[in-house]
Design brief:
The chain is an alpha/beta fold. The protein contains twelve helices and twelve strands. The protein has two domains: about 5-10 and about 260-385, Alpha-Beta Complex (Aspartate Aminotransferase, domain 1); about 15-255, 3-Layer(aba) Sandwich (Aspartate Aminotransferase, domain 2). It binds pyridoxal-5'-phosphate.
């Protein structure tokens, strides 16, 4: 075991060495531009991109020509939300999303709101899940898109995307799901879910950073997406710009590995996660699990520790890489919007840890983490002004 221990796999994952191996030739020998139609350098690059496209498509049950490569899930979310808001008829359209979405969806929804699109932000239940009936009730004649994530990046909660997809399809409304945390970790099939748009990110599934994809349904219905990046007409006009061939090849290799190894890996990681949970609860009182334990990613655990100051918690756990919220928002001192949406108070939301396990998490890692977290929490509770009920720090 080596310190520090990395338990922040929701923020990013290391690139699998097998993926790096697959990428290397495309930086040097096979450096062609995939859009060069007149010579072998271009053809080799195009062939590599098309193989990667087929692999990514396979992982989610799509056809290869429904995969649009982007720079990551943030761009995919932007393309989906802005691309549909922009495609809808004048006179105002309506989008339905939920309060616990990633900021890439929430902030994009706020942006289209300023341009005249109406947005409904559905609440989540105390277990973190959206009620599909609430989605149905929110759909009106001008609703063009429902956007609900597949798996939450903080609490790992799996949304009832198949039910939501069915509701949207029945009402003729497009369904987008941000599946950056789900794809490669749990089974997600675009037909089962009846999804029309799906955001993915390579670096959340042992591929490189800076590459992702948007699944865009081509038939029944054909999704009318307005491009957000204009130029040479790459990616069937939906996303112009020279393709990042090595990164795309890496994404494809990562997708193939996930397809082959996902179920065994999920089982292994789930057992480690459950042991971490059980042993922490054996050693500590007043530990709260945030979000549904049944509808949850196998690699996620999110716990709140009552009666201590959250500020000190992460600082004291100095040799374990974890976070209290999403990596992109933890720079701010605001408590997590996801935990607040579950109904936690600010103190408890701040005294929370997101554990994200992954491909290289070991038994020894978990032993160490249990030991460390239990002793840190015990010590901080001794010192905390919050330890007596009713006393506010
Ligand atoms: C990481 C993440 C994103 C952003 O993905 P990038 O590829 O880093 O842009 C979006 N949504 C969710 C749910 C994520 O976990």
């Amino acid at each position: 075991m080596t310190l520090p221990i990395y338990l922040d796999y929701h923020a990013t994952t290391p690139v699998d060495p097998r993926v790096v191996e697959a990428m290397l030739p495309y930086f040097t020998r096979e450096f062609g531009n995939a859009a060069s139609r007149t010579h072998a350098f271009g053809w080799a690059a195009r062939d590599a991109v098309e193989e990667a496209r087929a692999r990514v498509a396979d992982l989610v049950g799509a056809a290869a020509n429904e995969i649009v490569f982007t720079s990551g899930a943030t761009e995919s979310d932007n393309l989906a939300v802005r691309g549909i808001a922009g495609a809808s008829r004048d006179g105002g359209s309506h989008i339905i999303t939920c309060v616990s979405e990633h900021t890439a969806v929430l902030d994009t929804c706020r942006a289209v709101e300023r341009q005249g699109t109406r947005v409904t932000y559905l609440p989540v239940r105390p277990d973190g899940r959206v009620d599909p009936d609430a989605v149905a009730a929110a759909i009106g004649p001008d609703t063009v898109l429902v956007s609900v994530m597949a798996a939450n990046n903080e609490i790992g909660v799996l949304q009832p995307v198949a039910e939501i997809g069915a509701v949207a399809r029945a009402r003729g409304v497009l369904f987008h799901t941000d599946a950056a945390q789900a794809v490669g970790h749990v089974r997600l099939d675009v037909e089962d879910v009846q999804a029309d748009l799906v955001s993915m990110s390579a670096h959340k599934m042992y591929g490189p950073k800076g590459v992702g994809a948007l699944y865009v349904r081509r038939r029944r219905p054909r999704v009318p997406l307005v491009e957000q990046m204009s130029g040479g007409g790459h990616e069937r006009g939906m996303r112009s710009g020279t393709l990042n061939v090595p990164a795309i090849v890496g994404f494809g290799a990562a997708a193939a590995l996930c397809a082959a190894e996902m179920s065994a890996e999920a089982e292994r990681v789930r057992a480690l996660r459950d042991r971490l949970h059980r042993q922490l609860c054996d050693r500590l009182d007043d530990v709260r699990v945030n979000g549904s334990m049944t509808h949850r990613l196998p690699n996620n655990l999110n716990l709140s520790f009552a009666r201590l100051e959250g500020e000190s918690l992460l600082m004291a756990i100095d040799d374990i890489a974890v976070s209290s919220g999403a990596a992109c928002t933890s720079a701010s001192r605001d408590p997590s919007h996801v935990l607040m949406a579950l109904g936690l108070g600010e103190d408890l939301a701040r005294a929370s840890i997101r554990f994200g396990l992954g491909r290289w998490t070991t038994d020894e890692d978990i032993d160490y983490v249990v030991q460390k977290v239990a002793s840190v929490v015990g010590r901080l509770r001794e010192m905390s002004p919050l330890r007596t009920a009713g006393v506010d720090a």
